[in-house]
Design brief:
Keywords: Aromatic hydrocarbons catabolism, Dioxygenase, Oxidoreductase. The protein is α+β, with helices and mostly antiparallel strands and 166 residues long. Helices cover 23% and strands 42% of the residues. The protein has one domain: Nuclear Transport Factor 2, Chain: A (Roll). A hairpin with a 3-residue loop joins strand 5 and strand 6.
């Protein structure tokens, strides 16, 4: 296997592990994939064809500027204090079309398409979100996420959207 193929396999396994962490509700394993200063951003659409480009100047679907902010979301999910999160939906992340775009000593830029199906049992309802991820990964002994940018193509949110939906 060539070095590029080995790296792509390593990145693919890493992205699939992140998806499994979310589907299996292994929130702290999921958090451990992120660097302390990681940025997690799902921008909103400014119009039909353009996403907002500044999370500080417009409303985002989700924006977390550090792992500590992501940990706050995990705390809210686990706390039982949010009535909408008392019974979490069953989710399955489908991650495809994984492509390495840039590999430097500083990191790896990767894109992947996604679809997430979320089934809310008490409502007997399935919601689906789809779009594209763009990651900036740090490649050391283990891969970590420096940035996750999530373009949600169907951004009309039926009821709620949280980290496990995208």
């Amino acid at each position: 296997m060539s070095p590029d193929a080995q790296l792509k396999e390593r990145v693919t396994e890493f992205l699939l592990e992140e998806a499994d962490c979310l589907d299996e509700r292994r929130w702290h394993d999921w958090l451990a994939l992120y660097e302390e200063d990681a940025v997690y951003w799902a921008p909103s659409w400014d119009d039909d064809d353009h996403l907002i480009d500044d999370p500080h100047a417009a409303i985002s679907l989700i924006y977390c500027s550090s792992r500590a902010r992501l940990a706050e979301r995990v705390w809210r999910i686990e706390s039982g204090l949010s009535s909408s999160l008392l019974r979490l939906p069953r989710t399955r992340h489908l991650v495809t079309n994984i492509r390495l775009h840039e590999v430097t000593a500083d990191g790896i830029t990767v894109t992947a398409n996604f679809q997430v199906n979320a089934y809310k049992h008490e409502e007997q309802r399935t919601d689906m979100f789809f779009g594209q991820y763009r990651y900036r990964l740090t490649a050391g002994e283990r891969l970590t996420i420096r940035e996750k940018y999530i373009m949600v193509c169907n951004d009309v949110i039926p009821r709620q959207m949280d980290i496990f939906h995208i």
